[in-house]
Amino acid sequence: MPDKRLLATQAALDEMRNIVAMLVGRALEGDTNAASIVLSKVLPSVKAQAEKVQFDLNTDAPISEQVAQVLDAIAAGAIAPDVGRLIIDSVARLSDVRATEELAARIEALEEARDARA
Fold it and tell me: Which residues fall within 8 angstroms of residue 27, CB to CB, at 6 or more apart?
């Protein structure tokens, strides 16, 4: 005897096929709402994607200099302003991560020094 879940799934799939067929039929008859539903489920949504860029960026430089390098690249037309902003935001996040790591290391060193004195 077939599993009840399998039967329920098969029934649901059959109903979905009927619904899709009905929507496609209506879309082909000119129903724009049905067409919109069909297209939104069939075509993948297009996501914005930043363009790839190449420019000189010295990642060993201080953060303020890195941001200045990005601004210079924007001013020179080497990168678009929106892409430049993404890069600057990334540099800022990296700076935050580095600052957190440095603080953690300093706290650890302080705790070790305290424990050595005790």
Answer: 34, 35, 37, 38
